[in-house]
Amino acid sequence: MHNPPVAPRTSLFKKYFLALFAAVVVPLAIAGGSEAWFGYHDRRETLNDLLEAEARSAASKIQDFMDGIRDQLGWTVQLPWSDSADDRRRLDALRLLRQVPAVMSLSLVDAAGKERLFVSRIGLNRVEDGDDHSNDPAVRGARSDRVWYGPVKFLDGSEPFMTIAVAGNRSAVGVAVAEINLKFIWDVISAIRVGQTGEAFVLDQLGRLVAHPDISLVLRADEAATRPLQALWAAIITRPGEAVTGPDLSGKMVLAAMAPIPGVDWSVVVKQPVAEAFGPIYAALWRTAALLVAGAVLAALLAYWLTRRIVGPIRLLELGVARIGAGHFDHRISLATGDELERLASRFNEMAGELAVSQERSERISRLRRFLAPQVAELVDRTGDDSVLDGRRVEVVVVFCDLRGFTPFSAQSEPETVMAVLGEYYHALESVVSAHGATLLSFSGDGAMVLVNAPVACPDPALRAVNMARDMQMSVQRLLVGWRAQGHRLGFGVGLAMGLATVGRIGSEGRLDYAAIGNVTNLASRLCSSAEDSEILIDRVAAGAVGTNAPLVELDARVLKGFDQPVPVFAVVIGVGQ
After folding, report:
1. Residues 200 and 269: beta-carbon distance below 8 Å
2. Where are the domains of the chain?
């Protein structure tokens, strides 16, 4: 029998979602769209009037700034000139520079066009110079229109300047010509705010940036960087009396309007980010969106409940794994969901237990390797018995060695050279000590202390120590050949002694070391100090234990520090029997 195809099923959630969307969301969307459309046009007209008013206000403030400079210059051309130098007029000029920081220099020209006084912040002052300025455009312009504003100039391609000339009420008083640093307009332009984040900037008749809240844009005089501002200015010119939209320096869309500044033939442009300007419209859209979201709240609550049932255990697993990964191997994840998540938590707990055991073993080996040969540390770890490290009295062979001439070498050499030599030296000693299964107790500067027959006993400790000392001498002597070729006067001596000593762990909870204490330690140290370069000195006990198994030469008894009687000394012959 042929079964008809099963029609695709739609979930109940999807059915009700579509029905609620059509019944609630669509009418709300239509109403919200209509409100946004009409609200946009209303807001656009309001913003156009507002920005126009802000632009005129900004132009008025900049005009007041320029008029203030003009009026101050007018005070310097009130009285006619006399034939001699006028100290009072010079004091007035200096006072002007102090009161008006924007004025960089001031030149006073008499009725005949002769310069009578020149004061400057950056140049030398001149009195009665007599240069003829009658044909200077600034002088002629001021005599014609009483006030003359020159074009904007950028000094060294950076700071904007312009010339202002003001003529007196009578021709006899002459003309005042001042160079104005336009960067001081920054105080005015930076104080202008349109809305919360809107700002203003000023362009001259050629479209060059004269003032901006970011003064570095003006000082750089980089037309490429300010091209977006010039594009806004050009767009406003083509649509006079209307605010235009365009990108600003940061690429954000802004709404801009412009007003002219009389006299100087500049334009001030005010701009406000579109996002801020149309904030009320956006707020209305957000309200509409909130109404749309409200229709899905019931479904969101159900999804939230189901998600909590799944995400909660997963988050607990995540936090537990993070703690285990951070080294808290005693942490256990507790889940009672009765499903796969609970089984996964059990697996993580088993893994944490195994990691704890592994970490404990690793730390134990690390502690043992601080004062044991690697093979001894591995042995203690495998057997799990560290009682060999407990304090006890045992016969040991103590070996001391150090470099000859190291103190003057370290005082005269660079730190990098000293550390490089020590690195090679330590590596050579560690290799030999490890090869002979001895215990390297410590490095101290250029010296080292090695213990044989403790903490783990070995057969023929004296012979093993002598063989180790010969290998140490040969290894270091090979290094000395290279060091001496570099001009380093160094040598190497070894001393060893055999006898009873107290050995064991010593220290505190935070720091443990393995140490040997007893007269044999002092004797080995003194023999090392007495040994010359390439020499190995041993005491009578060690020599007797070695017997004929190693070539020895008996030396004269030596007086050693800390010993009342001369001490019999033997030297190991290096290179014989190898």
Report:
1. yes
2. 8-277, 382-572
Residue type, 47: L
Give the residues across from 451 on adjacent strands. Answer: 398, 439
**Burial of residue 245, with CB atoms counted within 10 A of its CB: 0-12 exposed, 13-18 middle, 19 or more buried:** middle
pLDDT tens-digit readout, 546-572 = 999 999 999 999 999 989 899 999 999
Cα dist. 125→113, 128, 161, 182 in Å? 18, 10, 19, 22
Confidence (pTM): 0.45
Residues 268/55, Cβ–Cβ less than 8 Å: yes
CA dist 403 and 34 (Å) reads 94
What CA–CA distance (Å, rounded) separates 319 from 305? 21
- Arch. (CATH architecture) of 8-277: 2-Layer Sandwich (3.30)
Distance CA 433, CA 358 (A): 28
Q: What is the CATH number of domain 382-572?
A: 3.30.70.1230
Mention every residue, 6+ apart, whose C-beta is less than 8 A from residue 306.
Answer: none
The residue type of 473 is: Q
Report residue 59's pLDDT band, with 50, 70 and 90 as the boundaries: confident
Q: Tell whether the torsion through CA atoms of 492, 493, 498 and 502 is positive or negative.
A: negative
**Structural contact between residues 147 and 263, judged by C-beta atoms closer than 8 angstroms:** yes
HSE, CB side, 13 Å, CA atoms: give it for residue 572: 39
The token duo for 562 is 């800390």
Q: What is the pLDDT of residues 317-341, one digit of tens each?
A: 667 777 777 766 677 777 776 777 6
The H-or-E segment that residue 98 falls in is: helix 87-99
Provide the CB-side half-sphere exposure for 298 (13 A, CA): 6
Alpha-helical segments (H) within 279-414: 279-294, 297-325, 340-369, 374-383, 406-412
